[in-house]
């Protein structure tokens, strides 16, 4: 299995922490201002909305150099905020919602004009900035945007994973490895895409994923199974307009 060292891993982690802290601080300040009557409700419902969540996720993605997925999330968030900002109502959305497809198409085409893509006919999913999958001593790092990644873990012990999936499909196959720690974590960020995780049928799984217009499901055949209660795999993170499936 090929191993990569990512020197930007700590920087991305700090960006995630700072962005999360900023969101909670901003949300708290807005709620306090509304409770004190210092913030009009029409403004409050703009900043504390699912549309703004998409915009924030998109902005963080851009900072993390995921420009394509980031701009698409920001565009979708702004599009659905227009009725609230302008007061035109949702009749406007009913008429102009196909503009979302036009916007996504323009962003995808703009991606081809970026310098790193000019003159390249074949781009490996492992060398591209948009798709990467690495493993280091049983720990998996996988980032996928507008593509497909399949990671089969062959290390004797699986020590965890960090999966980021945006407008793509990711497969993590853990059927050829084992758990050693009492609790092993898989951190997931799935936005407008799907993640499939293949596990041995007797692994105990705890699902702590947060969902926004998304879902997750354990599709293993679990009847009459002798589960390994001494080890547990915990899924945590967020699923936004996407899905996570556990299979065996």
Describe it.
- The two termini are 22 Å apart.
- The chain has helices at residues 9-35, 41-47, 50-63, 67-86, 91-96, 99-112, and strands at residues 131-136, 139-145, 148-152, 157-158, 160-166, 169-173, 178-179, 183-191, 194-198, 203-212, 215-218, 228-240, 243-247.
- The protein has 248 residues and is an alpha/beta fold.
- It is globular and about 55 Å long.
The fraction of residues in strands falls at 25-35%
- Sheet/helix structural class: alpha/beta
Inertia-based shape: globular
Give the strand order of the largest sheet, numbering strands 1, 2, ... along the chain. 1-2-5-8-12-10
Distance between the termini: 22 Å
Spans of 5+ residues with little confidence (pLDDT < 50)? 1-6, 117-130
Key terms for this structure?
248 residues, alpha/beta, 2 domains, six-stranded mixed beta sheet, 6 helices, 35% helix, disordered N terminus
Present the secondary structure layout.
Layout lengths: L8 H27 L5 H7 L2 H14 L3 H20 L4 H6 L2 H14 L18 E6 L2 E7 L2 E5 L4 E2 L1 E7 L2 E5 L4 E2 L3 E9 L2 E5 L4 E10 L2 E4 L9 E13 L2 E5 L1
Parallel strand pairs: 2-5, 3-6, 4-7, 5-8, 6-9, 8-12, 9-13, 10-12, 11-13
Antiparallel strand pairs: 1-2
Helix pairs in contact: 3-4, 4-6
